[in-house]
Design brief:
Layout (H helix, E strand, L loop, with lengths): L6 H4 L29 H13 L3 H14 L4 H13 L3 H13 L5 H13 L3 H14 L4 H13 L3 H12 L3 H10 L5 E2 L6 E10 L6 E4 L6 H4 L8 E4 L14 E4 L4 E2 L7 E5 L8 E4 L4 E6 L5 E9 L4 E9 L3 E6 L6 E8 L6 E6 L5 E3 L5 E7 L2 E9 L2 E10 L4 E3 L2 E4 L18 H4 L22
Helix pairs in contact: 2-3, 2-4, 3-4, 4-5, 5-6, 6-7, 6-8, 7-8, 8-9, 8-10, 9-10
Length: 457
Amino acid sequence: MIHSRTPEKLIFKAIALFVGLLITGSFSSVQSEAREPLDATGYYQKGLRLSQVKDWQDAAVQFQKAIELDSKFALAHANLGVALSQTGKHKDALLKFEEALGLGYDHAFLRYNRGVSFTRLGLFEEAETEFQMALEKDSRMSKARYDLGILYLLQNRPEKAREQVNHLYRKNQKLSKKLFEQIPGEYKVAEVNSSGTLSGRVTLTGPVPRARSFHLIHAPNIKFCARISDGKGHRILRDFTVSENSGLKDTVIAIQGIKKGKPFPTKMQTFNIDRCHSDQYVIGVRNGENILVENKDPIRHEIATYEINSSSYVDQVSNKAVTKHSSQVRSAFVNQDTNEFLIKCNLHPFLQTRGFMVENPYYAISDAEGNFSLSDVPPGTYEVLAWHPFIPTLKGTVTIEEGKDSKIDFVFDEADQRRKLYQDDIEGYRFNPWFDSKENFYGGPRVDDPVEILQKF
């Protein structure tokens, strides 16, 4: 937990960022001290060399010698401050940083190191000022942004820390995620002594939208992929699965506004790849959770993840190969304004799972008949969302009462479906005559699958 950590463990150690950036002259020009005494620049450069190998105590000695020969050597004062901070002498380091400032030297790294020393001494307001000044001088300084976020946590200001996560997200996702993981979540796990249930049904009116088709001529593994098709060279993705009595499958129903209650499931969700197919078309995803990618196919997949916001802006978050019969873990860490998380294969785009970003564990996915249910819901009045990837989200309000089953239904209209059609060209596609041929690409007669069933490979 954050509160059990000390500032020394939470804040990055001050790094000799001046080293290599503030060097004047070259090391090869430094004369040997054994031959003749060094001047201030010589001692300063010797200190820099020692700093590079993290010999901070000896580096401090050399910087001090440079200052004794030239009291106005601003860079020597600044780097002596760095060396002193690295040995835990933060009060002395702050004095040296102050002397460098008095001599006219001011730099983003100087402000950053002052902020670290102030933090180590528990002077949080002064540290905040220094980190902010460092960012004013260099807005790309990710470590200052991260440490400022940690500083806000030490001051019990999680909202300000979340702002730093958002600032960091586009510049340094590694640090952004590291800071995010240390911020207490807004949803709290608590015992639910009295609760109710919510159930209902999702339906679709109008004709069932056509399935999307992906022509397998684009697949790099034709020998394997062509056997998983409609028999005419197309892989079919049924993103609208509707039962005979209009029940809509694969819709996420999520209760909004619950701040505490039952825990999220402890079992890691799995993106299960089998015959170029995922067994889950939609899932609920919480920001920062890990997803297991498991490839059971005898071919490689290029699995990418994407974040999609309310304006339908799509940005790729990760892309990594998953070799045959292997697995790996992917993080669903996304920007705060993300509504949808997409995980798919960039080689076989029909292999995909779409996730709705949830804020609490009170969500369900409609079954083949469109039914859903949620249990252990704390009493109260809540907004409920019904989300499907390719039709506008529906909203409703429900009151949950202790010991009672509340009902809510959602009715989507087929006329509102909003899929792109560029992958929906079953008729007249220019490669169709080749794939409709009765001759196999490798020679011999072609055997078609009437439905998506894998033939023996």
